[in-house]
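In the design runs reported in the main text, the only information available to the sequence generator was the tokenized backbone. The following block is the verbatim input for one such run; it is reproduced so that readers can re-run the procedure and compare outputs position by position.
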């Protein structure tokens, strides 16, 4: 049972702690899209490495080989730094506030008069 007995305080805590997916996709789609995002990053990384190494043909000088190795390492580092990143859900209070602002901008009826949640 909750230790908070006051309904207003309960509502405030609920708005603070409850979260909503605002990424623009079905909430259940995240399960698959997270794996796809990681897979896409790995595939891009492999393709970029193959492009660098594909330029090397036949006998290769040590200088050219070391330059290619450096390029591959830089590619991997760059890919990991800008790779897939999960985005957290937004607090429910922010989501409701954003909806109310959009309704006010569009002039939609039924908006809360004082704008507080």
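Verbatim output:
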């Amino acid at each position: 049972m909750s230790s908070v007995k006051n309904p207003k305080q309960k509502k405030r805590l609920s708005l603070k702690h409850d979260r909503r997916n605002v990424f623009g996709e079905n909430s259940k789609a995240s399960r698959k899209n997270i794996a796809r995002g990681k897979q896409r990053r790995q595939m891009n990384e492999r393709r970029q490495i193959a492009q660098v190494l594909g330029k090397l043909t036949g006998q290769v000088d040590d200088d050219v080989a070391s330059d290619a190795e450096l390029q591959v390492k830089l590619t991997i580092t760059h890919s990991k730094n800008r790779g897939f990143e999960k985005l957290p859900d937004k607090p429910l209070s922010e989501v409701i506030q954003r909806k109310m602002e959009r309704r006010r901008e569009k002039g939609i009826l039924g908006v809360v008069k004082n704008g507080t949640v």
